[in-house]
């Protein structure tokens, strides 16, 4: 792609060779909220060819098109700088204020901001528009550099939290998850982890409220869906009746599907999830359409809470398929 400069001539590589050295990086001082860094600089129509086209022949260059009046730019800019600086030279960031460089914006057909382009070997190769979360920026940089995007501090904190949770240290785990949320608000795995801590301590209400902290793009994350399903199960289990009384009802009438369904809830409340699965499977086996397929739907909720790789999920799914497709 050729950019036309103020004289009417195309902006081309000033050296024209693959061995051209990128210019020394300055500090990105023009962007809102930007902290700059060794791998971030501002550019203009006069320096764009050297800053981007030439430099991208040796190192991938990300170009952030922004303006001082743009609210989303104020969110995206600092995140871009953070991830690029953490990549420690695997990629560089060039920032272009479109108010001051309208000609560049016209040549690259920038329709809205923020817009981000990635350049390699003097050519644009990828890009996106709008303010996106740090995780998406990190994935963008990883794809551009072949894996180098720096280690996320949030990932390190989450690793500590997971280890503490697995060891039963709920206090340390909760603090680590909270720290991750402070560093990256709405992070789905941090939200799900903190909610799991509340569930483990028996505080279902706080677990449910914690799930509401997830950012919009993380609402369908597998970890959020799993904890959400577990919260739903705990809330239903709280309404379960006495297991012995329910068993007596089933012995008196083997087709009392409501008693068997309530027994599944009671067993789950006691921690006997395998027993709950078997009770629900028995209902499907006897009358799969009972109560608008309530047993099958509850099985799906259990599968989601346990996760697809859980051996109990795998076995119960196999049995359910055998019943449904017999």
- Mean of residue pLDDT values: 86
CATH architecture label of the largest domain: 3-Layer(aba) Sandwich
Q: What is the CATH superfamily classification of the largest domain?
A: Glutaredoxin
CATH class of the largest domain: Alpha Beta
Biggest sheet statistics = 5 strands, mixed
Q: What is the C-alpha radius of gyration, as a whole number of Å? A: 28 Å
How many domains? The number is 3
How many helix segments? 14
Strand tally: 7
The shape, in one word, is: elongated
Strand content: 5-15%
Judged by helices, strands and strand pairing, the structural class is alpha/beta
Kindly identify the CATH topology of the largest domain: Glutaredoxin
| Helix content, binned percent | 40-55%
Span between termini = 60 Å
- Taking pLDDT < 50 over at least 5 consecutive residues as the criterion, the unreliable ranges are 1-35
Spatial strand order of the main sheet: 3-5-4-6-7
Q: Summarize the helix and strand pattern as letters.
A: EEEHEHEHEEHHHHHHHHHHH
Task: Give an overview of the whole structure.
52% of the residues lie in helices and 10% in strands. With 326 residues, it is an alpha/beta fold. Strand 4 (61-66), helix 2 (71-86) and strand 5 (92-97) form a beta-alpha-beta unit. It contains 14 helices and 7 strands. The protein is elongated, with a radius of gyration of 28 Å. It folds into 3 domains: 3-145, Glutaredoxin (3-Layer(aba) Sandwich); 153-221, Tetratricopeptide repeat domain (Serine Threonine Protein Phosphatase 5, Tetratricopeptide repeat), CATH 1.25.40; 243-324, Tetratricopeptide repeat domain (Serine Threonine Protein Phosphatase 5, Tetratricopeptide repeat, Alpha Horseshoe), CATH 1.25.40. The strands form 2 sheets. It has a 5-stranded mixed sheet with strand order 3-5-4-6-7, sandwiched between helices. A two-stranded antiparallel ribbon has the order 1-2.
